[in-house]
Design a protein that fits this description.
140 residues; 2 helices
């Protein structure tokens, strides 16, 4: 039985087939279920879950123009970031921010992530990240 996360973003997309191709074939998400009659799909990648639905006039709070999702990036953790990155390159899909290591302060520690960012076909900013450990934070 599918266990639902407490927070599951639902992204309005302009073309469900194009988005399904991107998420399933380029990013290797799993299709958990779909309602074709509603142009809706529930997808997962490791512990991340998202829903996508083709634009139908519901849930829209303002003008929906490219890039959708302005002001938000969706971080998804993975344990195979290099493989995911190579697959995107193999598909000649544009990468917004190249793969890199970043360290973020959390209290008195630094938490490391190897990460990159890509826009989905409708312009939602997706940040894929892999944990690379922790280290002490020294104030300079």
């Amino acid at each position: 039985m599918l266990k639902f996360n407490a927070l599951i973003p639902e992204l309005i997309v302009s073309n469900i087939e194009r988005s399904l191709n991107f998420y399933l074939n380029i990013l290797s998400f799993n299709l958990e279920y779909e309602r074709k009659e509603n142009k809706f799909a529930f997808l997962s990648l490791k512990e991340s879950q998202i829903m996508i639905v083709e634009r139908n006039g519901n849930w829209e709070t303002g003008d929906l123009v490219y890039p959708y999702g302005r002001g938000i990036n969706l971080q998804m953790l993975t344990n195979n970031i290099d493989e995911l990155y190579r697959n995107i390159e193999r598909n000649n899909y544009p990468i917004k921010i190249e793969i890199q290591e970043n360290w973020y302060r959390v209290g008195n520690k630094l938490v490391g992530q190897k990460e990159f960012l890509v826009l989905d076909p409708d312009g939602y900013l997706l940040r894929f990240a892999q944990d690379i450990g922790e280290k002490e934070h020294t104030v300079e």
